[in-house]
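HUMAN:
Could you generate one sequence with tokenized structure?
ASSISTANT:
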Amino acid sequence: MSLIPVKGDLLKWARDFRGLTEKQAADLLGITVAELRKYENDDIKPTLGMFEVFASRYRVPQSTLFREARPDIQPAPKDYRTLAGMKPKQSFDFKIALSNVRELIFHIERIARDDDEFVAPTIPHIRLSADPFVAGEKERKRIGVDIREQLDWATKDAFRKWRVAVENTGIFVFQQKFPLGDCRGFTLFDTDMAPVIVVNKDETFDVAKVFTLIHEMCHLLLRAPGIPSYNERDPLEAFCNKFTAAFFMPLDALRAVLPYWPNEPVNWKRDEIASWARKTAAIPHQGGPPRVVVRMSEIGVSYSKVVIDALNRQAINEVEAVEALGLGPGHLDAVKASLTRVRRQAVLG
């Protein structure tokens, strides 16, 4: 029986890294707490099979567990945008999602280092002292989505089109799945090479995804990344909410959807308001697409383009491209074809 010479401290690090208690980890691994402690204290070494269980259940690369010392861990985002301002959590699935995003950022940094033609994104910097309504309308104009164009969008296309518009500004937009009790979305700005928005795929109300996208964009523009609290008493959150409202409902948008411009207070019907809201922040539809479409919905067009462009310029090889995309070698042509369609649609408007 082969025993694997992994250090117990690395096994303990992996458990801490995933935010698991001893009981949670033991249940996940299918062993007792006493057995777990023996592994972590170097009293016993795992068999090959047990070592593979540690790596797969903790969702940690086997090579990481063979390190001599604990890896450095970047801190989690500071602020939380949770459901109804509830106390924030960081579940096991959230930590997995955060690790996934950090890995994507690692690939962006590697491409930026190796690809001489990589252009670092530049995004505006707004300040909390600014008028959020003015800032929201200004950013809407900068992104260049005309209200008439938006009103022509099919409902199922709204989130995808807003996402592409945001990605065209240099922001990477990823989707990850984790409990809504953790948060609806968050931002990272660990490096100038990669301002990142993450939207929760577990969000049932698709219109909330659109709101989250622009709300989180505001956090990046304020240089205040994290996981926002969605608490109106927080000046930062109040600013971002007002910014988002102005972004989606500028005066020209209101004039376009209202049957007439009111010069005095009007008691609009609830169904009328709902109809106008759907037009200005339309609700997209999610289906059951194939693997390449699902993966690209997670990593976004902007990230996919960075990887494929680097591959085409031979700044990275196919193995590195496949690793960065998280797909198989046979999927590269499908990704290239998808990017070609996106470019063609952009040209045609």
